[in-house]
Amino acid sequence: MNVLIYSENRLFGECLERGLSREKDVTRVVFASDIPRLAELNSECPGSAILVDLSSIDGPVVVEALMACAPDACFVALGVDEADGEALLDCARLGFAGVAPTGTALSELSGIIRSACRGEVKLAPRAAAGLFQKLHTSLGPRTVEDWPEVETLTRREREVCGLVCDGLSNKEIANELNRSIGTVKNHVHAILEKLEVPRRGAIPGRVMRAEPSGAPWRNSGACSRGEHRFELRYPSQKR
Predict the structure, then answer these.
(1) Which of 114, 20, 5 is nearest to 66 (CA)?
(2) Domain named HTH luxR-type: which ranges (predicted)?
(3) C-alpha–C-alpha distance, residues 208 and 227, integer Å
(4) Model pTM?
(5) I need a labelling partner for 232 at 20 to 30 A (CA). Which of 99, 100, 117, 133 fits?
């Protein structure tokens, strides 16, 4: 691997450079403490990975400038608190391909770099939990408004859609709704077109099952097979 290091802390950068130079799979490692120098080093020999010491820089503008110098490189963030979900989420937003949290040993760093270059992210369970928690609080639960095309379904199509998600066949849906199989097939075809999915098996993945409060799915009782049936509803729709 050809590794470039960016840190405005010269002592840290030089120590990391010497440490990584001893790793067997690192063919070249160089250090830069300013953006012009990094751009120069990358133009001489493009880095397969660029490590950025976030603890030494001021704000995302610097990160964006670094990434503009080497758009094809794999960027790995250094010095991130693995318990800080917000910081991990910021790294993802900025375009980092990997993260080496504070406390990462030198022996672990090369593995993190290799994983990032392969398109993989190595996270400790604690870090992954923090990231998921932050995603949950930032994004919140998805509702029917997240799928505008769902709003185009008629009441009957929403009912058929719910039964399809319960795994009922066209014949079983026809029996449940007291409609002909041909009518059910027409409804399913319309649902496929409106939800923009290629086959009925993809319908459940296109919609969301959630608790009754403020979510698009409502438990509407038991169907003839003795199982729970879900009907696609809108939060404002009254039973």
Answers:
(1) 5
(2) 146-214
(3) 18
(4) 0.58
(5) 133
